[in-house]
Amino acid sequence: MKKLSVLFLMVAFTACSVKLIPPSQPDVDRVSVKYPGYTLAELNDGKALFEQTCSRYHRLKNPASRNEEKWKEIVPKMIGKLNKKEGREVIDNKQQESILRYLITMSTAAKPSR
């Protein structure tokens, strides 16, 4: 019975996790007016920071689940909470901007067909 419970929890957790769309050059091109000189490498860096940092504290959100205004509201609050909780600057302003740019860029990405 215990093994079945563990298996059920693993399946439930996996089902709740978000599969993030890998960034691509068309994503960078789409926001080039907003972020001149923005590169695919920078977009991937933002994705990595988002995954590594945010997943330690809660389930990752799909970037398309919020619009730009919401992400601009949420990200600074969450990073402020994180830095306060840890008692040090875990994420600095440059890293925060990287996460925010990733989320804003990918919030407008085309959704994959099923």
Features:
single chain, mainly alpha, 5 helices, 114 residues
Describe the structure.
With 114 residues, the chain is mostly helical. The chain has one domain (2-107). It contains five helices and no strands. The chain has helices spanning 2-16, 25-30, 40-54, 68-86, 93-107. Helix 3 packs across helix 5 (93-107) and helix 4 packs antiparallel against helix 5 (93-107). The longest helix has 19 residues, at 68-86.
Helix content, binned percent:
55-70%
Radius of gyration, Cα only, in angstroms? Answer: 16 Å
> Secondary-structure element sequence?
HHHHH
Quickly count the helices: 5
| Low-pLDDT segments, ≥5 res | 9-15
Q: Could you tell me the strand content as a percent range?
A: under 5%
Distance between the termini: 35 Å
Indicate how many domains the architecture comprises: 1
Helix and strand composition category = mainly alpha
Overall pLDDT level? 86
Described by the principal axes of the CA atoms, the overall outline is globular
Number of strands: 0
The profile of the biggest β sheet is:
none
Q: Would you spell out the secondary-structure blueprint of this structure?
A:
Layout (H helix, E strand, L loop, with lengths): L1 H15 L8 H6 L9 H15 L13 H19 L6 H15 L7
Provide a short characterization of the protein structure:
By secondary structure, the protein is an all-alpha fold. The protein is 61% helix and 0% strand.
